[in-house]
Write a structure and sequence with these properties.
Length: 744
C-alpha cells in the first residue's frame, strides 16, 4: 500500500509536491487520479497524482491528502508520458501542462448540465379536463396556441424542454409562465449530456480519383517502413478525401484516429463532411466549445465507448486515447499549432508525432505549403514524402499579377489602398455576380494614429507599442494587452485636432471599399468579428451562400475554406508580410500568399489574384506567382544553412522579465555571460525583443543556436541548472525566466 503521493499542482512550479496518503484512500488511490491538497496556510488545490511510493521525504513535515476525487484515473499513463516529454523538451513545468491540457471543469467542480422540461399537471391528464381548459383559453390565444403545441409535440409520448416548446409555439416565455401559474403546466429538471445528439453515418465515402488513389496507396506503402508521411498536395487536390479513406482503414483495424486542424480551419463544413461518413463515431474538440462540453468529451474518451475519431484543434493532442492507430495533422505548416502564450510553449504537430510513437501509431502531415522544417525532414529520409499535384476536377491554378503600388501611387492611380487593375477587376466581378476576397493582415481601422501638427502618436501605457484605432467603437486598443481608451478628440501634446490615420486595417479597407462600391455587400473576417463560434460560421455561410459579395479578412481567410464563386483575390499589401523582422518572414509570406491565392477560381473558370507591393523585385514574389514551392524551398534552405537557422540549427529563446528595468538588465547581462561560458559562440544577446515591454513588465531575450545533432535534453538540463543557480541569489529571486524551444 502506497504511503506517499507526488502530485502535480496546476501552478507553474517546477517540481511535484509530496503528500501522505491517509488510511482509507490507500486501496482506492491510483496514479492519474485527482485529489485535493492543502498548500501554504490557507490554499487548497485540485491536484493530480503523478506517482505513488513509500519513500518518506526528508526535511519537512508531510501533510495528508484531503480528498480523493476519482475512483479511476482521469489521466492515463500514455498521457502522463506525453506531458513528461513536453515538459522536458519545451522546458515547462508539469503544472503548466496540467493547466493547459485538462479542461477547467476537471480541475475544479464539475456540475452536470440540466434542462427544464414541461409536463401537464396531474389534474389535466384526462381529456375532458384538458378540453375544458382549451375552451376556457379562447380569450388567451397565445396560451391556447402554446397548449395546443404542447399537445401536438408530446402526442407520441415524448418529452419537451421549456425552451424548445416556447420556440416552436413562437410565444414569449411569459406565456409559458402564465400556464404554469394557472396550474396547467408543471416544470421539472432533467440532467442531460452536453454532447449533441448525433446522426448515424448515412453516406459512404466518395470514391477517389486516380491521383488520390495513387496517393493513398503510396501513403500506405510508406507507412510500412516510416512512422511519418508528408502528403504534399496542391490546394483543392482533395486531401480530405484521402484522409477519410485512411480513417476508414484505421477504424477497420479497430483503432482510434486523431485528426488535427488549426483552430480556424475547424469549421462546420469539415465537421459535417466527416459526420456524413463517420456519424456518431466522431467527436469534435474545439477551444471555442464550452468547458463543460470539453469535460464531457474527456470523460467519454475514458469510458467504455469512446469516440473512434477525434477531430480537434491543438489541445486535442492531450485527450485520453486508449488505442490510437493514426494521427492526421492537416495544414501542418500552420503557426497556430505552436502555443505562444502562456507556457507550455509546445508545438502540437511535434507532440502529435511523439504521442503516435507511444502507441506505435502512424502520423500523416498534410499541406499545400509544407513548413521548411517538415519538407527538409521529408526529403532527407526522416519522413516519407507523397505528392498530390492535380487539382480536383482539373481546376486551374489562379493567375497571379504583381502590381507595383509605388508606381501606381506616382501615377496617381491608387484609390485608397486599391490599385487601378484591382478596382477594375473588382467592378467586373461584381457585374458578373462573382465574389471577391481581399486580404490584409491587420485588423482594426488604422494601426497608427498621428498628430499632424506635432507628431504625437498614442501608445499603450503598459506595453512598448502604439495603439490601433478601431473606428466602429471610436476606441484605441493595444493588441498585446487589450488596454483601451477612447480615441482623443484633441492632441494632448499640442491641443490641435489635426489627426491623420496611417496604414490600413481591415475596418478602414471596408470603409474605403464602400466609397467605391456603395452597393456591394461586404463582410469582415478578423479577430474582432469572430469572437464567437457562431459569428465566425455566420460570416463563412453568408459568403458561401452568395449573400456577401466581398469578404475582407486577415489571415483567417486563407485557412482552407472552399468557396466556389471567387473570381478575384486581392492581396493588398504583401510588404507587411515580406518585411516582418524574423528569419521565417519569407516562409510565412510564401505560405500565406499561396494559400490566399488558392481561394480563387475554384469551380467556374480561372481566378485572378492581384498582389500589391512596393517591392516588385522581391525574389519571393516570382515563386509565389509560379506557385513554385521547390524553388522557394531551395532558396530558403541555402539561406538557413548560411545563417545557422533551422532545420540545420535548433533555436531556444531565453526570456527574462521584470518590472524593474535596471535589475532586469543586470540579471540579463550576467545570464548572457554565463551562457556564453557554457555554450560559447552559440549565444546571442541579451537583446530587446520586438515588443520589449508588455503589461508593465520589461522583457529581454537571449538567443541560443545549437547544432541539430546536439541533444536538446542535455542543453535543457544545462539551462535549468543555470537558472536554478542564478535565481538562488536573493536579489534575483523575483525575476521571471522562461523559454521558447523551436520558436515560430
Ligand atoms: Zn499634437
Ligand atoms: Zn498594452
Amino acid at each position: 500500500m502506497p504511503k506517499f503521493a507526488d502530485v502535480i499542482l496546476p501552478l507553474p512550479l517546477a517540481d511535484t509536491f509530496t503528500y501522505s496518503v491517509p488510511q482509507g484512500f490507500e486501496e482506492r488511490i491510483a496514479e492519474g487520479c485527482r485529489v485535493t491538497v492543502p498548500l501554504g496556510k490557507s490554499k487548497h488545490y485540485t491536484a493530480l497524482v503523478q506517482r505513488l511510493h513509500d519513500d518518506e521525504p526528508e526535511g519537512y513535515v508531510v501533510r495528508p491528502i484531503e480528498e480523493l476525487l476519482d475512483e479511476a484515473p482521469i489521466v492515463l499513463p500514455t498521457q502522463t508520458k506525453l506531458w513528461q516529454w513536453v515538459s522536458r523538451y519545451y522546458l515547462c513545468s508539469m503544472g503548466e501542462i496540467f493547466k493547459a491540457a485538462v479542461p477547467q471543469g476537471l480541475k475544479g467542480e464539475f456540475k452536470p448540465k440540466t434542462e427544464q422540461r414541461i409536463r401537464l399537471a396531474a389534474s389535466f391528464s384526462n381529456a375532458t379536463a384538458l378540453n375544458l381548459m382549451l375552451q376556457s383559453l379562447s380569450r388567451a390565444p397565445r396560451q391556447k396556441r402554446l397548449l395546443n403545441t404542447f399537445i401536438a409535440q408530446t402526442a407520441d409520448g415524448s418529452e419537451i424542454s421549456r425552451h424548445r416548446l416556447i420556440e416552436i409555439a413562437a410565444v414569449s416565455p411569459n406565456i409559458c409562465k402564465e400556464l404554469i401559474d394557472k396550474g396547467v403546466f408543471e416544470c421539472y429538471e432533467v440532467e442531460i449530456g452536453r454532447l449533441r445528439e448525433q446522426c448515424a453515418a448515412v453516406v459512404p465515402q466518395n470514391t477517389l480519383n486516380e491521383a488520390q488513389q495513387q496517393a493513398l496507396e503510396s501513403i500506405n506503402g510508406n507507412f510500412a517502413n516510416k512512422n511519418v508521411v508528408l502528403l504534399h498536395g496542391v490546394t483543392s487536390a482533395g486531401k480530405t478525401e484521402v484522409y477519410i479513406h485512411l480513417i476508414t482503414q484505421a477504424l477497420g483495424e479497430g483503432k482510434q484516429v486523431l485528426y488535427m486542424l488549426p483552430e480556424i480551419a475547424l469549421t462546420k463544413q469539415i465537421v459535417e463532411r466527416l459526420r456524413r461518413v463517420f456519424g456518431n463515431r466522431i467527436g469534435v474538440y474545439h477551444s471555442k466549445f464550452s468547458d463543460a462540453e470539453r469535460v464531457e468529451i474527456w470523460k467519454k474518451q475514458l469510458g467504455d465507448e469512446p469516440y473512434d475519431v477525434i477531430l480537434g484543434v491543438r489541445s486535442s493532442v492531450f485527450l485520453p486515447f486508449k488505442n490510437l492507430g493514426l494521427i492526421i495533422v492537416d495544414e501542418e505548416h500552420e503557426n497556430s499549432y505552436k502555443q505562444q502564450e502562456p507556457a507550455p510553449r509546445y508545438n502540437a504537430r511535434n507532440a502529435a508525432m511523439v504521442l503516435a510513437s507511444f502507441f506505435g501509431a502512424k502520423t500523416l502531415l498534410g499541406t499545400a505549403t509544407p513548413s521548411i522544417d517538415t519538407y527538409y525532414n521529408a526529403t532527407t529520409g526522416k519522413y516519407a514524402l507523397v505528392n498530390l499535384n492535380r487539382r480536383y476536377s482539373s481546376l486551374q491554378l489562379p493567375e497571379i499579377e504583381i502590381v507595383d503600388i509605388k508606381e501606381q501611387a506616382r501615377r496617381k492611380l491608387m484609390t485608397g489602398p486599391f490599385s487601378d487593375p484591382l478596382v477594375e477587376a473588382m467592378s467586373r466581378a461584381l457585374k458578373e455576380k462573382k465574389q471577391i476576397i481581399l486580404f490584409q493582415n491587420r485588423r482594426g481601422y488604422s494601426p497608427l494614429m498621428e498628430c499632424r501638427t506635432c507628431g504625437w502618436v498614442p501608445r499603450c501605457k503598459h506595453c512598448d507599442v502604439s495603439l490601433t484605432l478601431h473606428k466602429n467603437s471610436s476606441k484605441l486598443t493595444c493588441h498585446y494587452c487589450g488596454y483601451t481608451i477612447p480615441a482623443p478628440k484633441m492632441c494632448p501634446n499640442c491641443e490641435t485636432d489635426n489627426f491623420v490615420n496611417l496604414g490600413y486595417g481591415t475596418e478602414k479597407i471596408e470603409d474605403d471599399l464602400l466609397k467605391i462600391f456603395p452597393e456591394a455587400r461586404t463582410a469582415r473576417m478578423d479577430l474582432d468579428t469572430t469572437r464567437t463560434r457562431t459569428a465566425y460560421e455566420g460570416i463563412i455561410n453568408d459568403f458561401q451562400q452568395g449573400r456577401t459579395d466581398i469578404l475582407i479578412g486577415t489571415q483567417m481567410v486563407s485557412k482552407g475554406l472552399d468557396f466556389d464563386n471567387v473570381a478575384v483575390v486581392g492581396i493588398l499589401n504583401a510588404d507587411i508580410l515580406l518585411n516582418y523582422p524574423d528569419f521565417r518572414a519569407s516562409e510565412r509570406a510564401f505560405q500565406l500568399m499561396a494559400q490566399v491565392a488558392g481561394r480563387a477560381g475554384r469551380k467556374n473558370g480561372r481566378g485572378k489574384v492581384y498582389l500589391q507591393t512596393r517591392q516588385p523585385d522581391n525574389p519571393v514574389l516570382p515563386m509565389v506567382v509560379a506557385n513554385n514551392y521547390m524553388q522557394f524551398y531551395d532558396s530558403q534552405l541555402s539561406e538557413r544553412m548560411l545563417f545557422h537557422y533551422p532545420p540545420f540549427y535548433r533555436l531556444v529563446y531565453v526570456y527574462t522579465k521584470h518590472r524593474d528595468l535596471s535589475l532586469l538588465e543586470e540579471f540579463s547581462y550576467i545570464l548572457g555571460e554565463r551562457m556564453r561560458q557554457l555554450f560559447d559562440h552559440r549565444v546571442l544577446g541579451p537583446d530587446l525583443p520586438p515588443v520589449a515591454r508588455v503589461q508593465q513588465l520589461y522583457i529581454r531575450k537571449i538567443v541560443l543556436k545549437v547544432e541539430g545533432n546536439l541533444s536538446q535534453y542535455r542543453i535543457n538540463e544545462t539551462l535549468l541548472a543555470l537558472q536554478k543557480e542564478l535565481l538562488e541569489e536573493k536579489k534575483f529571486r523575483s525575476i521571471t525566466m522562461y523559454y521558447d524551444v523551436d520558436p515560430l
